[in-house]
From TrEMBL:
InterPro entries: F420-G6PD/mer (IPR050564), F420_OxRdatse_Rv3520c_pred (IPR019951), Luciferase-like_dom (IPR011251), Luciferase-like_sf (IPR036661). It comes from the Bacteria. Keywords: Oxidoreductase. Residues 17-315 form the Luciferase-like domain. This is LLM class F420-dependent oxidoreductase. Pfam families: Bac_luciferase. Gene3D superfamilies: Luciferase-like domain. The keyword Cell membrane does not apply.
Length: 336
């Protein structure tokens, strides 16, 4: 099982520690470093900065939001960074949800998310393979544009720049069983959310029949500490925000996933508290048991024991979220 460093996205401003953490991860033998985006910092610019200060570590987006860019724009970002980094780029994509797509990007959330994702990946693949001009007669992504609001002058184009790797890896963030099944068919890997080694069935039957060489790269908060309850507080804070506030009361993919994992009553309770403005109570309402099973928190011995569960399943890459330098080093030592 390979290790990755997940840096996420910025809060109020850039972290002064991210480049040094990435360099330390590279020194410790971590395979990859990943950045993300929500509605603030973007995923590609910090990754480019990290690329300039490292030499071997793989660079991934976990995830770049599809609504933020047309698929050709995303492919341009990926092929450019792949060239600049000497072939270290991995493109992780996610559809996000209606709250972000419509509230931040001002675009309609697709009525058929699976179709929209499939078309998006198709365009990205065509750009990277550069076998001919990009042409897609899609429901959500059509190239050239032929809508009634166009000029009719568009023509199929092929990337001027030759991609360094036509098979640049594309991974998808997916939560629902149908989305996971499609991801196994059209992508090179999967970025699961809230992965629990003891509950793979929560993602549907496709998890049991993944193709050879398919990457499974979940994020897990890693924290070496004496007090497990205190160490889990950061996990619960993240869960309270995502389950309570990352979506509408009637459509929250993160809350739905938690419900499928056996915590439906707790998920709906967290939602109600968060949406009522009682955010601290929402965080405290996250069960320690749930936070614990999707993370690696505790003493070195406890993490070593729990790490064995992660190794027994389909996980190929464990992406350590928000570790300090000690936790980063201990995880590398335990996985060597």
């Amino acid at each position: 099982m390979r290790l990755g460093l997940a840096l996420g996205y910025w809060g109020r401003g850039p972290s002064p520690d991210h480049v040094e953490l990435a360099r330390e991860a590279e020194r410790l033998g971590y395979r990859s470093v990943w950045t993300a985006e929500s509605w603030g910092s973007d995923a590609f610019t910090p990754l480019t900065w990290i690329a300039a200060h490292t030499s071997t570590i793989e660079l991934g987006t976990a995830v770049a939001q599809m609504a933020a860019r047309s698929p050709t724009t995303t492919a341009m970002h990926a092929l450019t960074l792949d060239h600049l980094s000497g072939g270290r780029m991995t493109l992780g994509l996610g559809l996000s949800g209606p709250q972000v797509v419509e509230g931040w990007y001002g675009r309609p959330f697709p009525a058929s998310p699976l179709t929209a994702t499939r078309e998006y990946v198709d365009v990205v693949r065509q750009v990277l393979r550069r076998e001919g001009p990009v042409q897609v007669d899609g429901r959500f992504h059509a190239l050239p544009h032929r809508g009634p609001d166009g000029t009719g002058l568009g023509r199929p184009l092929k990337s001027i720049t030759h991609p360094l790797r036509p098979d640049l890896p594309v991974l998808l963030g997916a939560e629902g069983p149908k989305n996971v099944a499609q991801t196994a068919r059209i992508a090179d890997g999967w970025l699961p959310l809230y992965w629990s080694p003891s509950r793979p069935d929560a993602y549907g039957p496709a998890v049991g029949r993944l193709p050879e060489g398919f990457r499974v790269a979940p994020m897990a908060r890693v924290k070496v500490c004496d007090d497990v309850s205190e160490g889990l507080l950061g996990v619960k804070t993240m869960l309270g925000f995502y389950i309570g506030g990352m979506g509408h009361a009637t459509r929250n993919f993160h809350a739905d996933l938690m419900a499928r994992m056996g915590y439906e009553e707790e998920a709906r309770h967290i939602q109600r508290l968060f949406l009522a403005g009682r955010r601290e109570e929402a965080v405290l309402a996250v069960p320690d048991a749930f936070a614990d099973e999707i993370s690696l928190v505790g003493s070195r011995e406890r993490i070593a024991e729990r790490l064995e569960l992660w190794r027994k399943g389909p996980v190929t890459d464990l992406l350590a979220l928000a570790p300090d330098r000690t936790s980063l080093r201990v995880l590398a030592e335990l996985n060597s």
